[in-house]
Amino acid sequence: MPTEQEILSFREKLEAIRREIGKEIVGQDEVIGSMVLALVAGGNVLLEGVPGLGKTRLVRTLSRVLDLPFSRIQFTPDLMPADITGTNIIEKTEQGNAFRFQPGPLFASIVLADEINRATPKTQSALLEAMQEHAVTVAGVSRPMSEPYFVLATQNPVEQEGTYPLPEAQLDRFLFKLLVPFPTLEELDGIVNLTITGEEPQAQAVADGAEILRLRAIAREVPVAQAVQKYALQLILNTHPEIPGSPEASRRFLRFGASPRAAQALLSAARARALAEGRFNVSFEDIRALAKPCLRHRIALNFEGMAEGRTPDDIVDELLKEGKK
Fold it and tell me: Which DSSP letter does residue 165 get?
């Protein structure tokens, strides 16, 4: 169990990270908070929103605040796996020609996969290995990434022409799917004022890789009461329409439910949230607060659900109400 001093330092560091990001990003407080939680929980994030909402800027700012190597990959249909993983090149030496591995942009601590759904499945699968294994295989050799390793991907929900929807196996590798909302009038005013004055504030580095790994180690020590864990696991089971006794919302509107990895993601993120709230243990509220970002991309609507205009978030809300009965 974390000590009181560790909890205090954890909260202070997360608050410092959020504060520095807020210098360059107007609004989006919930998205920023969730992204930082995913970072210390050791998971990847999928950001979904229309163009122009600052998703790329947000990730760039995060890399500066954390003082970690950053790379951006613009996914396009002609992008090949070797373009992102790297490849062996022939190099002349005094002893003759020799192969040398040239790392691709995946070899950074924070990787921005911009418009990930524009890449072909072949290239998406190369990214999947990096996300899950924190390593890539090139010419039969597995090459590990430096830790911490964090992939943030963006996708546009509006323009779907020329896109390759992410398969369920790839979506399951994301700890969170975060919906980036359009700014309010006040936030839009702040964005315009920030960008036209020419005096944009610069975020400063407040943590490095070693600090992030330390925060992750503290989060893993947070205990979860048996009742809270059972509540989280029952929520995952309730997303499966084929299980006898599943709630009506699942049976009517879902095609399939969340995987066991969803349970791992939910509890890992809940541990980080508990510390961020200054608590020694995970509560039921932590599970409820993180249910949507953890589950919205891991459940699939059936035809009836889509015909009635339901969303995954609607179903999660109904399942949470069911759990309170």
Answer: P
